[in-house]
Queue: 4 jobs
Job 1
Amino acid sequence: MTDAVVAVSRDMIRKGSRSFAAAATLFDPATRASAYLLYAWCRHCDDEIDGQDLGHAPAPGAEPFDPSPAARAARLEALRRQTLSALAGEPQTHEVFVALQRVAREHRIPARHALELLAGFEMDVNERRYETLDETLLYCYRVAGVVGVMMARIMGVRDPAVLLRAADLGIAFQLTNIARDVIDDARNDRCYLPAQWLREAGIPAAELADPARRPAVAAVVGRLLDEADRYYASSAEGLRALPFRSAWAIATALGVYRDIGRVVRARGAGAWDRRAVVSTPRKLWLAAAGGARALWASTVERQASGEPRAADLWVTPDLAAED
């Protein structure tokens, strides 16, 4: 698929996420095109909810964004109707819904996965607060874990046990995002850290962005990154089930995102003075390391039984019915 819809989708990922765009180049051409299509729909939905342009601030002169709960709820409902229409095979005119329709049909992605992502955005629209780690993990699954599941289906995975590992990777990514963006989120009156953890650390939610609270916030974020590491480790066990090039792309993305968490952790209370990023030379090194990891997984590890998934990791029953 090298037509206009794929081209538009490719441009969206290149402008919206340089890290994921770089990792996607490691896929074989067909898988890469499907990844672009899925990303385009996910990115569009996220932008519609948050009033962004490919994850960034809108360009000057863009149509004003109405951030009221009612307006955001209306946009979410429109996204839900358009998504259901696309998944039902009805004709589409917007490129991102054409993209979703194609990728869902080709890879038999169940409609419930796309709707799960929208349910995650609904949690943002409703300004949900998270009391426990499990509640935070539910959010992480909905906005990122289920994307991992859909990506795994694009790579040919149907085994629910392997799809769980893909969900683990998405959850780890989102936990890392929360850790990196916790202060920016707090300034926008959003908090994804478990309220129980904040109380234990003596941090009033209203003071999360207060510079005087940074050492305590860093300690809570350290706990969150510990959790992320458990999900990264679990997800790596799924590499053996993937074709080599897919395993290479995923191992590289895993390495880059895990490294963002490493940067946040290493900076301590200064983690939010500037955005945590991974340098280009480091990304290249991680891509090489990802290739070696993928080669090992697709040869040696494929012949052996893997480590069982830890029983205390969060799990959704949604994957039990996979075909």
Job 2
Amino acid sequence: MVKESESMTARGSKLEEILDFCVSLARDMVMSGANLERVSLGIERICRSYGLSEVSLFLLSNYVSLGARDEEGRYAYRQMSIPAADIHLQRLKQLNRMSYVVAEDRISPDSLQKLLERARRVREYPDWAILLARMCAMSCLCLIFGGWIREVIIVMAATAALHGTMHLFSRVGLDRVVINAATMFLVAAVAILLNKTPLRGDSAVIFITISLFLIPGIPLVNAVRNMLCGNEMNGILQFLKVVIETMALGVGLYLALWILGGHSDMSNPVVKSITNPFLLVVLSFLASASFGVNFRIGVHDLWLAGLGGALTRVVFLLLTSGVANRLVYVSVAALFASLYAEILATKRKDPSTYFVYPSIIPLIPGDLFYYSLLGLYIKDQAMFEMNSVRCILTLFGMSIGFVVNSFLTHYWRKMRYIIRQKG
């Protein structure tokens, strides 16, 4: 009886070890920037590989719970909170590959936590490399929006201030809303004060560039994507969270403009972006590759990140020259970017997120966000309404492109599986 009891206890601990591993893996993947849909599929695949049934997974961007029953009829349950996401695509890549190894090889449950610890350890970029990459990305965006040497210098100084501010606030542990408002205020203040010196450049170009870096465009697209993919509850919660955080950025910029008067030279706040297609493509390549460093993509894959941004820009330029409807051409461009990422991910067995985040940088509507906020500030209702609608259409268009890609790839994989079974 004692041996039987010990055997049952051991089997029960195996189940608990598997669930502990799964919720920790889900937490780490979401924190690293994974899409919730893909994380759910990965966790369910691992549970099935270990013979677990009645799998009940509830996953939000800040919470995960998992329950399951083993082959002996024992049931266990685990839950865990998920800290705020800090996109780290190289870690996500390793975690994703490890999840496939675990599901295929059925690693011994008592070795799972050690395996997870090894997957968490990745080679990090030095802080100076991240700062230089951010400066390069922001400079490229500044040039895309029509800036030149003066604007680039101010943007680079503001980026350095942004880099230091983000490091400072990450240690304090403040709420994201407060961090967003304070960061935007401080960075905008630096830009406004520098713009009052002999450097003086185009304020609209400067603030549009800063806004594009800070607005949570990727989380917002993911929120809309979740709502369109049937994960309505998480999508709504994530959408409300991102909207509040975006409003905090608006408050910070509004206060900086109000206190320091940075809007005084904006007699014509509409910038003239460069129109040379070759320069746009080259700058998009450099910006996406630089954002790849910011997203912690492996150094050997940065050229693929840049290529995704450059090709997305090419498709976007071709579409805008022949299609008038913003929702249509943004959706098709986003579909192309996600297909590009999906093809690479399938070939290399990496998460598509690893390639799609830098590829969609040319589509993030930082200029529309700024114009919407400026319309509110200068009480121009027409400017506010027009640019708000365009910004929303852009974000929905990007989400639609991702959803269509998910639909196509899902049925493509299903068809390939059926063909293999028949073969």
Job 3
Amino acid sequence: MSLLGIDLGTSGCKAGAFALDGACIAQAYREYDMLHPQPGWSELDSGQVWRQTRTVIAEVAAQTRTDPVTALSISAFGEAFVPVSKTRTILDNSILCVDNRGQEHIERLIKHFGLEKLYSINPNLLGPNYSLPKLLWLREHRPEIYQQAEYFLLWADLVAFMLGASPVTNNSHANRTLLLDLNRNDWSDELLNWSGIPCRKLGPVVPGGTDIGTVSKAMAAELGLPSGVRIVAGGHDQCCNALGCGGISAGRAVYGMGSFDCITPVYKKPADPLSMLRENLNIEHHVLPDLYVSFLYNQSGLLAKWFRDTFASADVPPPGIGIYQHLEAELPDDPTNILVLPHFDPPPHHSSDTAGAIVGLKTNTTRGEILKAIYEGATLYFMQGIASLRRIGIDTTSFIASGGGSKSDPGLQLRADILGIPFIRPRITEAGVLGAAILAGLATGALQTPEEATRLFVKQDRIFTPNPQRHAAYLEKHALYQQLYPSLRPILKHLP
């Protein structure tokens, strides 16, 4: 028997099957593109994502005939929902968190409740990136879709529903809607009443790791899965990443590297949640019970993809060499003299009146220097957040690296040098896929405890230790970086 993990990102989806001894039997990946129908709008073609998801599942299923899948779960990016009918028909595109629609509803929400009251119910840092403002925008501007939709499901639960599960929302994803009462671990009556969104359109809240059904006979036949495969409620990708990296106890921290770079510390529920608000930190349920996480994130991977598509679209790497490995061969050894403001899309919890900037270019600047400066800027962005974590007693002595970006030796060394913190790379870096598979195993009894699962599935590959000289240079560079946004903000807010 084997366990199937599925992981959906904003630029591609993956699937992987794992034997009960921790061995990876099969993997598959497909990419898709972000759509920008208007300036400031960012969407995914929901139908295309679902087709690509079916493709990776079928490809993995075909390689597990001798070790058939018995259970599956899904990890997915947060906030973005899909309108779907009762008969499992997808009705519209999926609006992404980097889309700027709905800001006016956040302003209304703050005016009505106040920041501290809102945080006491749903401890997130307010901005238009969450599901609630997008739902309200959809109700106003596409009322026919809003009325036609039986459910609005976030991607992990949408895929589960399309495969045959009950329509639910797992609690870590429910938190990303802004409509969850964290203490009750259920939808907030106050926030639902204010929004006017019926609870029935969201489905009941269930903890990650809940058995929610079986793959339908039709889907099993289409995808080549055995009959009776159990579907287990998954979770927000960074929470599944934490599980797949061994982040199963307070004090661990994961550095996810995919479309977004995301730092995810794991901890027990804070005694003083408002101290987290004062440090500009959110609180969210882990996929494991009685544990919580916060997120520091930006779209580093999407910036790397933009660089690839803009500066290297004609490059053909040698056989066996990936495009990013090919490009990273051009990175200089030392810190660059270029500063990058990584606001190419509005960062989390910033106003939309900003933009990216590359400062310090000269006629002899190389392509490799620009790429390294992009990596540097996206990492320097996190230094303030790490200081905030330390002020409230959440200290990080090492990061466990996960995601596609963690396969890059230069990328991990650069981040260790900038932050002054060692990075540990596990042998299996696709931790969202692995975490979802582990969750499926724990829910169905194939795996007994998170500790057992970690011993079997999470093995260390390599440690990247900070270079003291380079870290000192990056501390000086961070002092300049801190001046970049305040200096440029009066100009950037006037750029379309």
Job 4
Amino acid sequence: MMKRIKRKVVVIGGGPAGLAAAISAKKAGCDDVLLIERARILGGILNQCIHDGFGLHRFKEALSGPEYAQRFIDEFRSLDIDVMTETIVLTMDRRRVLQVSSKAGLLEIQAGAVVLAMGCRERTAGAISLPGTRPAGVYTAGFAQNVMNLENMMVGKRAVVLGSGDIGLIMARRLTLEGAKVLAVFEILPYSSGLPRNIQQCLNDYDIPLFLSTTVIKIHGEHRIDGVTVAQVDDRMQPIQGTERYLDCDTLLLSVGLIPENELSQEAGVRLNPLTNGAFVDDTLMTSVPGVFACGNVLHVHDLVDHVSAEADSAGKNAADYVQKGKNDPKIRIPVTPGEGIRYTLPQTISGKRDVTLSFRVEEPARNRRVMVCDGDRVVKRKKVIRLHPAEMVQIPLKKDILKDVRSLKVYVE
């Protein structure tokens, strides 16, 4: 017979978002917080990110991924928060009933509030319909990072990287430092999808070329990859005939995007945003299912882990408030929508009763522009930005005082 228990706040995921949310919920006065993590240890993806650059906002110093995670793990343990590792949440419904598989067997948990912090996964060769054979030597960049940094195994000697996402750029440098030859990074878009600092530090500093508006059109090899054919693409992302060229390589790394892990969310009936593949949330980070909150990369893919932690702080506190102070479902929901030049905005609704930080990404690179937050023809907030890039999340804080009598908000680039 399945054992059944009740818990006030359950956090799903033990990475940077889950750790910060659990700590915040406990600090907000909730004495019954449980964190569930499917891996053996806490820390999530940060454990394999041995490069530095984490914590510049949060701790005002450059930390490696494991160092950043350890700061939270130490605080988590000091607060004596309950944790179940090597445990998988199998199902979750709208009543916040979770069925989990743990080392002790099957368990049913009735949660007062749930914080979704499951992170994201990488797009694979199949996800982008990459043509050619399916030999060994084709990896997602994150998997290669895991194999090299945690398993101490080399993935290849002559590599090509498809996609200029940050993990791909970092792995181009990592392979070079380990003695491999990285022939080039190819990006199908007309601009890089990684942070500018990673372009400089991971490619330019090591003379690794980046080719824009170019993609892999065929993988060659039977048992092991022995080469790829690349070609330039037009403005419809279609290969341009006559631009094909062959590269001899034994490794292809894919850094072609991340997908929030929202299968549990969908099962519970959480409404998802097709632009982010994460949940629609209000200004408490509560989803369309009452008592279910979301934060971190399961909500929208972040550029900086510092932003993940800050967002999770809010989600954890609000989840604790939900179970301690009762439901807070405002009758007025003010929609926040993306306008010209903006890909998405988050949160998608606000109450106007509390301070809020709007997070968004632009559709294309731009310089010396103004970001406008408007209620119809009235400008609520404007921010001059020297440089805008789709790879970098922009945030604009709004005080509740300026939200008085606002009916709707639209964010756009001017």
